[in-house]
Amino acid sequence: MTFQDLMPILPEIILLATAIVILMVDTFLGDKRWLTWVGLGGIVLAGAATYTLATQPPRDFQNMAISDAYTAFFRLVILTATGLGLLVALNWLDAHGEQQGEYNALLLLAAIGMTLMAAATHMLTLFVALELFSLSLYILAGFERERAASGEAALKYLLLGAFSSALFVYGIALVYAATGALDFAGIAQKASFSPLFLAGVALLLVGFGFKVAAVPFHMWTPDVYQGAPTPITAYMSVATKAAAFAAFVRLFVGFLGVEKTVWVPAVAVLAVLTMTVGNLAALRQESLKRMLAYSSIAHAGYVLVGVAAANTTGTAAVLFYLLVYALMNLGAFAVVIALERQGAGDVTLSEIRGLARSHPLLGAAMAVFMFSLTGVPPFAGFFGKFYLFQAAVQANLSWLVVIAVLNSALSAYYYLGVLVQMYMADVEEPPRVVGQPVLSFATLVTVVLVIGIGLFPDFWLRLALGGMRVLLG
Questions:
Q1: Using CA atoms, how far apart are residues 6 and 15, in angstroms rounded to an integer?
Q2: Whether pTM exceeds 0.70
Q3: Residue 330 binned pLDDT confidence (cut-offs 50, 70, 90)
Q4: Which of 65, 67, 137, 353 could form a disulfide with 61 if both were Cys (CB 3.0 to 4.6 A apart)?
Q5: pLDDT digits over 352-377, tens only?
Q6: Beta carbons within 8 Å of 289's beta carbon, 6+ residues apart
Q7: Element (H or E) spanning 22, and its range?
Q8: Phi and psi, residue 66, nearest 5°
């Protein structure tokens, strides 16, 4: 195997080398904070390699993975989320006395699994990538070993994750038994309506449904998100969804598009359940982390609307929305991390009363994220939902769009409730937040991007459409 043969997975190789360097240097370096910047350097190099590969014709790696415009889009989304994940955790790790080296290395290993999922064109690659990032996140969810809630989150995630992985493997086995193929192209050529094949597809849907936190496979999400360290919760809520949807769309829309009558109705039903249950449960939450956990379930439902459309516009909208969601959700969690530095283990709505008075810029940033998550123009979240709903109308799924719009209106109650607490609630002593330059910088980046993408959405949508045209040929 030559270097040219390895070029399609060069970003993953760079991330792996960076993770190894971090673990080795961690043994000798006194100031562990430098390890974050080493990790960011690796992410920048991987991003440069991704851009270089995107400017070249698609490259195949041993019929197991491919580097094309579609892969490049998701690689950049995941790398961006990983870079922000490193930044928002820097002050948190210092405050909690946690290990810098292990955290940074595990986050990079998780990113490798996620980017490989986006590139996978073979079931074995897909499963190995799935397990690689899952194992890393199991450990990271329990990273605060002295806190019982963190250990409980890791155990729940591990047990339910192992169960979903078993179902996923069983689905792969049934699909292989029905088609005699493990590569996506071979499966698409020999796909049929046989009971064996349909059962395999159903189990694959269950496996993907668990990773994207779709109802009824969402039961792990609120407890794990609340118990895990907040930087990990922020990362899991966006990067895991991006990776799972990347593989889901490539397999089901890109290769099984001709068989969409088999799976589109099931995805549409999942979208309705996921949106509705996520939003209704979020209405009752006092914990910000738990509210954002149910919110993340609801947003998975919105993305499923685009998947159910199963057309070029819909799947391009999925790519666009996952980028936007990653930015606005990471930003919202960055504000939660800033508030947690006061010593609170779990920030509640009552604890953010008067935040806009004591910290106007932090309050304004949170307002941008809440408006964008609601879908208020001109923020990026509005255009993300608009493109998703437009694609569903084009696919004659107007009934699904009506339900999605009603759910989006319902979500305004709890998102705008955060603004009411920050700007309008009476409080004698507003919350005080210690200055954290790196965290503030990460928050500023997400604010600028959420506003910028909202003001210039066409450029980002064209990038997503370019990836989809490559995928759909």
A1: 14
A2: yes
A3: very high
A4: 65
A5: 888 878 788 888 999 999 999 999 88
A6: 225, 226, 230, 233, 336, 346, 347
A7: helix 10-26
A8: -140, 145
